[in-house]
Amino acid sequence: MKKLLTSGAFLVLLVYLTTACHDINVPVDTELTPDIFPQNSSQFIQASGPPYAALRGNFALDYWFMQSLSSDEAILPARGGNWFDNQNYRMLHYHNWTKDHGWTNGAWSWLSTVIGTSNQALSILNQTIPAATASKPTNLAELKMVRALAYFMMMDLYGNVPIDTTYGDFTPHPNVPRAQVFSFIEKEVKAAMPYLSRVSGQATYGRANKFTGFSLLAKMYLNAEYYTGTQRYNDAIVACDSVISSGLYALEPRTSYLQMFYPNNGPQMKEFIFAIPYDPAAGAMAGTNGMMYHSRYDVPRSETKKFNLPFTPSAPESTLPEYYVNFNDANDIRNGQWLTGLQFMNDGVTPVTVTTTKKGYDQTYTGADGAAAYTYQVNLTPDIVLRQDVATYDCGNDEIAWNMGYRNIKFYPDASSTSRNQNNDVPVFRYSDIILMKAEAILRGGTPTQGQTALSLVNQLRANRTTSAALSSITLEGIYAERCREFAWESWHRNDMIRFGKYEGKWGFKTDADVNHRIFPIPTSAFTVNPALTQNPGY
């Protein structure tokens, strides 16, 4: 079972946290009251659950949709009317979302909840835990890192956002320029860093340590020119070096790269700097597991038996040829995260077959024997064709349509779960990202350090991913392609596309080139709660 903050003590404090702003005169009739709990580091870790539970909630769903379906990494078209879902996925692909777009509203609400829950926990726990407890500064610093990460994701998605760190202050706060939000996050992270733990492994898994802070700073500095107008590549290199010099992390070898994302992953993964743990069994006890549904979205329904799943997946989601073209090295272990072409059972010999009718296989079939039985071997094709209806983003409701698109199974299907939810933990920061961020920062003009060059860093990574010869040179385009191969399905591709100037390009059916669409509109629901907000440009 994964290590989630879901103990009974956490549940009691969760109730306390969610009711603390109500009538303070109601008598307390439980033994676990704020004046006696939490009283030590172990109890405080349990009591820190609500912000982490909130962070876990929508990271692998709403946030993934926003970051991936708005890029050339992934597409989720309708198939015979299934998954049209009020144009939510179509809008992400075409970049014609509005302030009433479902996932735009969902992600804003989720991140606001993470920030609000963090503010609440920081306020209450700062008062209740004894000041003499040696771990108190570390415990509070971790919660500030959760809040900083949420603000980073909100800044990345929405640009100009409000800053509010005071629990109980319901005054409407106007959104402030992105550069100011950037400075706020940077200051928060740097203030927390002296108190964060330097330990990595089981003891701190799923919690923010010092190297989570350095990783977040590196990511901010690498994107600083876009966020603020000022380059910070040397600062990005310094932040990366702080992680590298720690000696706590290492690249997983080629033999275990894919295992990093299996359902039994966890603190034993040498690359995980900060990961969000998922556990359907533990989460069910507290209702806080979040939504981690990649099997449901990515596995073809014809391969339910192959992966021994306890449910039939819907499989509406795939990649686009424009993204998959980066997987052009036959010797690269990262190719193993994809299902492509003719499909076989896990023995590699037995074909995956489906028996349907000729009409069921191809809805355009006009022969008189359309109802005749037809058995075929599943063949996943690379192209997405809106052959039923372009306006409704629909490929059709036959076997040809359901087999369109190569499928990603990086977060390997979890046969142990009795629900659609999975046990696979999701990394936010990995050591390979540190290596590639440093290489990119050097290529963009930063000063090389520790005897490392952009080329040596990229080859260091590739030596653990492919048996092909080392590269003799590296360009920014090469870095971009390497990031596509390394971080598929890990919620970083939109961020990368913007930084590399590719987000306004054409892919799939999308032709929009409006730079205003690098950030999303502030949703209508946010204005209802906070009338002091100002809408982002272009909306």
TrEMBL record:
Gene3D superfamilies: 1.25.40.390, SusD-like (1.10.3780.10), Tetratricopeptide repeat domain (1.25.40.10)
Tagged with keyword Signal: yes
Entries under PROSITE patterns matching the protein: PROKAR_LIPOPROTEIN
Keywords: Cell outer membrane, Membrane, Signal
Residue ranges constituting the SusD-like N-terminal domain according to the UniProt record: 83-222
Positions of the RagB/SusD domain: 305-539
Region forming the signal peptide: 1-20
InterPro entries: SusD-like_N, SusD_RagB_dom, TPR-like_helical_dom_sf
Subcellular location: Cell outer membrane
Coiled coil: none
GO cellular component, one term: cell outer membrane
Protein family per UniProt: Belongs to the SusD family.
UniProt-recorded name of the protein: RagB/SusD family nutrient uptake outer membrane protein
Provenance organism: Spirosoma endbachense
